[in-house]
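Lecture notes, unit on protein representations.

Consider one protein chain, 284 amino acids long.
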Amino acid sequence: MPRIAYVNGAYTPLEDASVHIEDRGYQFADGIYEVVLRVGGRFWDLEGHLKRWARSLAELEIRAPISEAALKIVIAKLVEKNRLGDCMIYMQATRGVASRNHPFPSADTAPALVLTAKPIDLEKLNAKAAKGVAVITRPDIRWGRVDIKTVGLLPNCLAKEAAVRENAVEAWLVKDGKVTEGSSSNAWIVDEKGRLITHPLGNEILGGITRQTAIACAESLQMKVVERAFTVDEALKAREAFITSAMNLVTPVIAIDGNRIGDGAPGPVATRLRARYVQHNAEV
């Protein structure tokens, strides 16, 4: 059936959906976004995503287009109108439409809000995780506030395209010899002592909502989590590696830059953590 989008207060067929050419998101990447999964009739980590949504808006001084309560209604109605089961909801807000000029427009400029939804194949995602994925490394050339989930993702796109061209799923970004995160995911390793290591929160990484839940799930399994930066060499010598994100959940990494990690197959830590993450969201 035709897909339906939400654009500034109206539900409209996707092929007819459009924004103004002077929308600041289009001209300046002056906007933010979130991605939320709905699986088995439940929205996964919705409250965490909405909290980060509000934080990103505040950091960029963009007025919330609608209230959180109204946004929840729009999300649910969009899923209903698209008659979707398991799906991904993309939501984006920008500073709005104004004559192209670098300074912010007047305070009464209405922010823009766009949402889309599309089905996801959970079986396909699970099959990918069961097989494990390869990643490559690339220099981290992003701006200094990647903790804000902005639509300014060109460096991420360049890194992801480099990964695709090398038959990898993700690119791990490296700054000052340390892995920060992936182009669209958080990066993890499991060291020789079985500790789960991932970059600490700060301006250098996006505080992943899946990352946050994965830490809670790991701790519930009595797994030790250490939030610190790690080097590429540490990653190559790691017992296991994996990535986390809304779309990847917890997905094992079996090769980095063509080098096998561990025994070259998904390890028990990542596999167990993924199962616990899925269970957690099914129970919430």
